[in-house]
Amino acid sequence: MDVPYLLAGDIGGTRSRLAVFAPAGGFRQPVAAKEYASASFADLESLVSAFLGEVNARVGRACFGVAGPVRGGRAALTNLPWVVDEQRLGARFGFDGVRVINDVAALAAAVPLLSGEDVAPLQAGRPAAGGTIAVVAVGTGLGAAFLAWDGSRYRVFPSEAGHGDFAPADSRQAQLFLFLRERFAHVSRERVCSGRGIRTLYEYLEGEGFAKEAEGLKQTIAAAPDPVPRIVAAALGEEHPSALCRGTLELFISILGAVCGGLALDFLATGGIFLGGGIPPRILPMLRGGSFLTAFRAKGRMEALLGEIPVHVIVDPWAALRGAAREALSVSPASRVAR
Questions:
Q1: Which pLDDT tens digit goes with each residue over 71-118?
Q2: Where would a tag sit more exposed on the chain, N or C end, judged by fewer CB atoms within 10 A?
Q3: Within 10 A of 29 (CB to CB), how many other CB atoms are there?
Q4: C-alpha span between 120 and 285 (Å, rounded)
């Protein structure tokens, strides 16, 4: 098959990654890849131009997974002041075909490509043949997508479930909800169940007097542009973990478990739940600690059903880019932009 290289993009609010893949070989590894700070560029065109200027590869088709809803091949990113447009990208770079899709949909597109080494199981469950599969991505924000079996293959469908209402599951979470309700007109799942949510939970527990933070660590966290890595590291410290950081992650994991259990019911995900994004692999030891699955299954009469749903963490760092490359390959050259 005479197809040039495929350009895949995973465009996030904080970081963006671009990669070039060969059109054959299952997209196991990219030919070239690079990560960028998204805010360093005025738009996606500038980012793509910088990357292609460093890569010696003829790109024919491209697919970009972007953090936001996509309508008619166009998206205004949720956590970044960019507008991404298929027609504009195709005209600028002369691609034979280009697609812009939701970033979690790109991650979901990779699920059929994943092998055992690409995932870490949290619950084996009993997957239903052809059952719907849900994908939940936790990074700067919270996203979800699902795959539905059409009789011959899985098709990917995006959603904006991360912006659904946050539903407190216990008294502490109810107090958290009231705290946030005074600050925001709408308290979404993403407000508490994301990288930004971890910072919010930390500030909430600190204000409630949950535990006193060591002054040096407190200043380090406060000064960090992104405090989440420091909170996670302090929570997972083997010798002297921070009680406040540990409590923050425990609260976060309970909320995440409840959110995933709710989405498993929303999508009737009897084929499994896959957790992706930057945060779940970093907190894998605590996800395996039990509170996640307890919250995941705590759905009353649906507890037995949720106990049969497989739950996995995606640990393959290339998964979202592999999914975007898979979608790029499906772009028909007949859809090329006139130029």
A1: 999 998 877 889 999 999 999 999 989 999 999 999 999 999 999 999
A2: N
A3: 12
A4: 11
Evaluate whether 132 touches 183 at the Cβ level (below 8 Å). no
* Same domain, yes or no: 195 and 270: yes
* Helices 195-207 and 228-236: angle between axes, nearest 10 degrees: 70
Reduced to 3 states (helix: H, G, I; strand: E, B; else coil), residue 216 is helix
Residues 94 and 214 in one domain: no
Query: How far apart, in whole angstroms, are the C-alpha atoms of residue 246 and residue 258?
Result: 19
CB atoms closer than 10 angstroms to residue 20:
24
Indicate the SS3 state at residue 18. Answer: strand
Q: Rounded to whole angstroms, how far apart are CA atoms 29 and 322?
A: 8
Task: Please state, in angstroms and as integers, the Cα–Cα distance from residue 258 to each residue in 15, 189, 204, 282, 294, following that order.
Answer: 27, 10, 19, 19, 9
Q: What's the pLDDT at 2? A: 44
pLDDT tens, residue by residue, 146-156: 999 999 999 99
At 24, the amino acid letter reads A
Q: Look-up: residue for tokens 């005025």?
A: 42
Q: What pTM value is reported for the model?
A: 0.90
Closest to 112 in 3D by CA, of 244, 274, 329, 223: 274
| Residues of the domain holding 14 | 5-111+319-335
Q: Of 213, 301, 206, 195, which is closest to residue 256 (Cα–Cα)?
A: 195
126 within some domain:
no
List C-alpha distances in Å: 60 to 14, 148, 155.
27, 29, 23
Distance between first and last Cα of the chain: 24
285 and 187 inside one domain: yes
